[in-house]
Amino acid sequence: MTNDQKMKLPRTTLILILLALGLGGFVYFYEIRGATVREEAKEQKQKIFSFAEDDVQSLTVKTKKLTLNLERSPESSNPKWLIKSPISEPANDAIVSYLMDLLVKGNSDAYGGKLRTLSTPAKELGQFALDQPQATINITLKNRQSHQLILGKSNFNGRFLYAHTDPATKPDGNINVLLVSTDFANAVNRELSEWKQPVDNSQKLPGLSTPLPTPTNGK
User: 0.90 cut: is pTM over it?
Assistant: First the structure.
């Protein structure tokens, strides 16, 4: 028997080896690589909005006592945000960033970290105080797309707020209501003075309360 004959594998064995290699590749790409993709998709679905902070051009925050228009500064230097109305002043970037983080990264931690939605008839939004909301946030992106977040009342245990985004009636006549963090209420229910850029007094010299004596010539 020659060496070639000794090394030659039966046809059936070769087929089984190829099948095993193919199955191994499928398991790798589906179970390992695919798990990463599915996890990323899951996290994406849990977010309230899918846009990034840098995509936002302007915000309008309307509460029961204030309507505030914010716009991204055309310059990259501080401040990043400007108040356009009801006054025209630089905005407090820390305050605006707090709200932006909630809009971009925020999700609901209720029910095991899943973004919980409730499908309810549009005529019943009053039970969630979404017909007369405590706040409405309108977002305009750089590509001119717009989004809206409407904040209602707290849920039964006060841990979350009822809300809905880009409100639209579904074919069945219902609207999706979701639970979001109560941090949204803290982020928007502020006095106008809080939205303004703080005054930096560190560069100012202290005023002189008493005039210095005028030098006189001694006799």
Answer: no
